[in-house]
Specification:
Layout lengths: L6 H4 L3 H6 L3 H4 L14 H10 L1 H10 L14 H19 L7 E6 L5 H7 L4 E7 L2 H11 L8 E3 L7 E5 L15 E5 L7 H10 L6 E7 L10 H14 E8 L7 E8 L1
Parallel strand pairs: 1-2, 1-5, 2-4, 3-4, 5-6
Antiparallel strand pairs: 6-8, 7-8
Helix pairs in contact: 4-5, 4-6, 5-6, 6-7
């Protein structure tokens, strides 16, 4: 099955999304989750080749056998979350980047699997997700399905340890922490307008120590941004941060790249 081939069928499901009472119901409407998609197994094998010990540890902890995993065992979204987080763990350790009492921002954090994975490994003061209201709705539903010691705050000021979900209408009122240890932008920043992108540059990126950024290298019809805008955004990022490394995105090497930036 082609990942996302049912996207058009589910593009107008806002009401159904908002009526979901638990996370499992959401899977009926998400075109990139089970049973409508299959896992990015080639990407998982690629990160396994980059750091086999780390990949095996994380996948085993989450009841996946990396040596035997099949496409139907995991959905597309979740497999990409594991891939991206394994890259984050790998590179932060390689850089000896300290993550004690840390502040993490996840731009376009989706249903929250990356937050779950990172909060299992790092001593987090705040994990802030910027996303649309509809996405934050099933983000909360997902959070309710697993045990965690963090309280969830929705559109509230940063006053204590916890997870913070921030929607667009509260973004300008939110008090960002002065110290941003890690910012994650998996395709999200690359797919918004330049005006929106520049807001994140001015208010978030210029404050952060490390940025993980992924994007399509050229417009293939799925990205709302043109080749010109895609390249302009990378140029802006390179002007305000140092490029630590760039690699083809595991499993999507043909047209996607991952950039790791560090503070100048």
């Amino acid at each position: 099955m082609v990942n996302g081939e049912y996207f058009d069928q589910f593009s107008n499901c806002k009401e159904e999304y908002l009526n979901c009472k638990n996370f499992e119901e959401m899977f009926n409407y998400c075109p990139f989750c089970k049973p409508h998609s299959t896992g990015n197994i080639s990407g998982l094998k690629k990160v396994y080749s980059i750091n086999n010990e780390l990949t095996k540890e994380i996948m085993n902890k989450n009841n996946y056998n990396i040596d035997k995993i099949k496409p139907e065992d995991i959905d597309f979204v979740s497999s990409n979350n594991y891939i991206f987080c394994i890259l984050i763990f790998h590179y932060l350790k390689k850089m000896n980047h300290q993550m004690s009492n840390c502040n993490i921002i996840d731009i376009g954090g989706g249903f929250g699997n990356c937050r779950r994975l990172l909060s299992d490994y790092y001593d987090i003061f705040s994990y802030i997700v910027f996303d649309l209201d509809i996405t934050l709705h099933f983000n909360k539903l997902y959070l309710d399905t697993y045990d965690n010691s963090y309280k969830l705050f929705h559109n509230e000021k940063l006053n204590e340890v916890g997870f913070y979900n921030i929607s667009p209408n509260f973004r300008d009122e939110f008090n960002l922490p002065d110290k941003l240890d890690l910012v994650i932008a998996s395709h999200s920043l690359s797919e918004i307008s330049l005006e929106e992108f520049n807001w994140y540059i001015e208010n978030v990126i210029q404050k952060c120590s490390v940025l993980f950024y992924s994007c399509q290298k050229k417009d293939t019809g799925y990205s709302p941004c043109s080749d010109e805008v895609i390249n302009k955004k990378i140029k802006i990022l390179k002007s305000c941060m140092n490029l630590y490394d760039e690699l083809p995105q595991p499993g999507e090497e043909g047209n996607c790249s991952v950039f790791i930036f560090i503070k100048k």
